[in-house]
Amino acid sequence: MNIADLQNQTDLRNIAIDKVGVKGIKYPIIVADREKKIQHTIADLDIYVELPHHKRGTHMSRFLEVLAKYQEDTIVDQLESLLLETKQILNADAAYIDLKFPYFLSKKAPVSGIESLLSYTCEFNASYREQMSLWIGVGVPVTTLCPCSKEISDFGAHNQRSEITLRVCYDAFVWLEELIDLAEDSCSCEIYPLLKRVDEKFVTEKAYQNPMFVEDVVREISQKLDADCRIKAYQIVSENFESIHNHNAYAMIRKG
Questions:
Q1: Is residue 7 one of the residues assigned to a domain?
Q2: CA 80 – CA 10 distance, rounded (Å)
Q3: Is residue 106 part of a domain?
Q4: Which domain holds residue 195?
């Protein structure tokens, strides 16, 4: 049977498309874990190619065909091969893949020592044009306490749950845990999933002793990344989900 291939038609509008592909694929992956060696998790996976100006469309099913070849492998270790094959099969100049996934670490409460799991939103963003480019990222929930509120108040100070989002491109291997540790060391106080009263007292007082604006957070992290010779580019975002405003406070630094 001769079935028309409309995607392969020539397009006369002369407009290239930067990214075209499929999004929101749920996919099992295995990630390197500093303490346990590996961790199984589920990623939301997006995969794209660049579409030249003369092609009407891409063949969406071929993304899944390529991906299916890697389902028995540790896909995170095969991103370069996967992107190269995607480029070749779809006859594209560039291919991209984004993976976002929950990553779990066991944390001990600071005083009671009770252990429980905390989830971090992590990501890998890879592309291949002439060569492979890889960014890794973490989203880290933290606490910040407002320096201005502490300074002007007779007692107390407002604090809020915040999120630090950190993405890096590196020359030598960097653990996700290293980025998480860096973020948690650069805020008023880190977050714990389970706190008893003695722990709550500890984190409340620690935050009060370490007031930080969003600007302080991103500058603190920037200094630490600049001192790490493995890091060649980065983006740092600090966002406060404000407790006394109906808006968020935001700061961002990027380099490279």
A1: no
A2: 30
A3: yes
A4: 13-255
Give mean pLDDT, residues 74-99.
94
Distance in angstroms (rounded) separating the CA atoms of residues 225 and 255? 10
Q: What is the pTM of this model?
A: 0.92
DSSP at 26 = E
196 belongs to a structural domain: yes
- Which residue's entry shows tokens 């091969």? 81
Is residue 6 situated within a structural domain?
no
Number of structural domains (the chain) is 1
For the chain, strand residue ranges (E) read 17-33, 37-51, 95-108, 115-128, 132-145, 159-170, 189-190, 231-240, 249-255
Instruction: Please give the helix or strand (H or E) that residue 206 lies within, else none.
Output: helix 197-209
Picking from 139, 156, 153, 146, the residue whose alpha carbon sits closest to that of residue 216 is 146
Q: How far is CA 25 from CA 40, 73, 134, 179, 193, in A?
A: 16, 17, 20, 26, 29
CATH number of the structural domain spanning residue 137: 3.10.270.10
Give the residue among 222, 235, 249 at the shortest CA–CA distance from 123: 235
SS3 179: helix
Express each pLDDT in 187-239 by its tens digit: 999 999 999 999 999 999 999 999 999 999 999 999 999 999 999 999 999 99
239-245 long-range contacts, Cβ below 8 Å, gap at least 24?
239/162, 239/163, 239/165, 239/214, 240/144, 240/160, 240/162, 240/214, 241/160, 241/161, 241/162, 241/163, 242/160, 243/158, 243/159, 243/160, 244/149, 244/158
